[in-house]
Amino acid sequence: MLAYLGVCLVLIGLNLRTVFSSFAAVLPEVTADAGLPAWAVMVLTTVPVTLLGVFAPLAPGLARRFGAERVLLGAMAVLTAGLLLRPVELPGVGHLPAMLAGTAACGAAISLCNVLLPGVVKRDFPHRLGLMGGLYTTAICASAALGAGFTFPVFRATGQWTAALWFWAVPAGVVLLLFLRPALRARPGGQPRTGAGVNVWRSAMAWQVTLFMVLQAMMSFSVFAWLAPILRERGVDGGTAGLIVSASIVLQMLGSLFAPALATRFRDQRAINTVVALMTGGGFALSIFGPTEFLWLWTGLLGLGQGSLTAAALTLIMVRTRDGHTASHLSGMMQGVGYGLGSSGTLLVGQLHQATGSFAAAGVLFLLVGSLAAVFGYRAGRARFVGG
Predict the structure, then answer these.
(1) How far apart (Å, rounded) are the C-alpha atoms in residues 295 and 128?
(2) I need a surface site. Which of 86, 206, 247, 371 has the fewest CB within 10 A?
(3) Among 30-34, 80-84, 250-254, which is the least confidently predicted range?
(4) Which residue segments constitute the domains of the chain, with CATH numbers given?
């Protein structure tokens, strides 16, 4: 049963980024056909990430009351419903209302999954943190790769961007059905509240981990939302742009698979945190400024760095805490603040592009963000536990 639970957790991770990368893959077609104004494009690329932060602090309390598995089951049901709603055209008002509501539902559901997955892994797989951490973070990166790589081909085959977006409700619905058994067999209540628990909000180490997460999220979700449009603006056609983004995210998968195993092998993660932060910021800037004949190289560097950076940040939840209870609360804090503030990255890129007419300013921005991530990653990588 434990092995089946592990498979289900990985499959949940495999559905947590398609909502971002699938929309970006057909953004020009959606904008033109649905007549989306500029403000709507910025909202649709920013709000889901913001909601990851808004709902994250609620996850530990919900898990304590209903059980982590049952909250994950409910979140997958909401995610499936949101993916089904997103492309719906309502008579007289068009696509935008359903698109906003569906995207918001997806963001809320993904937020709960993001927070609860590390705590469940810490609780049920304490002797396999590197393996399980690598598998579920790799699945999250694979989710983004699938959305980036398959959405445009589905659009090209069907001629409908709505079909391309509806397609991603299918794997979410399958995982929902597969997860019914472990979720309903689990205890309805989670770990009781104890007075001896660590207050993560008063921990300096928890704040250093959180700031590392903020900067990681700024870069990661900006890549999900804007890398394909950046490539399209540089003269790459839609199909090739999807392949480049998908290849970049395949390298993310490699980084996310090996980074947790490497990070958990050592007591100190300062070196790996610093290196992958600089790789991500530099790869993002080179994708904007570098010669176009080397775009595959620049986006490959970005992908390897970003996958490792995401995995390194999530691994800190497990290696900087002593138990699953503290891991759940640290996860809620760092993902609540991290994604809440990290969503500003996608918004800033959109505003800078709208103001300047190019992505050059965004390239400079993420050189700075990558450097700051290296600083806080170095601090968060010290061999210390949250709460002393």
Answers:
(1) 37
(2) 371
(3) 250-254
(4) 2-189+202-380 (1.20.1250.20)
